[in-house]
Amino acid sequence: MGQRITLSVPDGSFAAYLATPDAANARGTAIVVIQEIFGINADMRETCDNFAREGFVAICPDLYWRQEPNVELTDKTEAEWKKALALYNAFDVDKGVADIDATIQAVRLQPGVTGGVGTVGYCLGGLLAYLTATRTGADAAVSYYGVGMDKHLDEASRIAKPLLMHIAEEDEFVPAEARAKIIEALEDSPHVEIHTYPGCQHAFARNDGVHYVADAAQEANARTLKFFQAMK
Q: Domain Dienelactone hydrolase: where (predicted)?
């Protein structure tokens, strides 16, 4: 279902995983899937494939390409965590958002994309999805347990398109104080819908993840699907 493609930006080029729906099932809309700290791994490819099965064109760009292209890690070993965290700590958020914006523009030109383009991100990608709602022309955005969002709440007034947020109530990477600040800053926005998941740790919706919680993941993913189905 998926294939590797190459996208170009002024300072270079990077890979992306592109999954396309069957013609009979195509909705005409697209979703940019934004990676966690582990790169374009099996989880991200499966996420793209699942969206394609639902009729969306789905694309996941390699946001680590300036540091190390084609990173593919899991959450299963200490060595992988160590490498993922090193990449995350060196990651340039502003350039990452610019690469996502370029991906949004590129996928609008893909065959069969005649409608809106949304973004969905997880962990690091959850922060970046929020920032696509404040900095890009994305038509909708979904943030799963975004890390570091509390440092960018001064941008919240720029949100003009629908933003759906999934917050884990026991997120070990987003302290309770930060979660409270995020909710307080965004809950009254007419464009933002927030859901919290009691008892869930970070990455409760990661496919085959260490902290996967089936009921919560299914609930969050159902909300996400319904949200994107409403995108025109």
A: 14-230
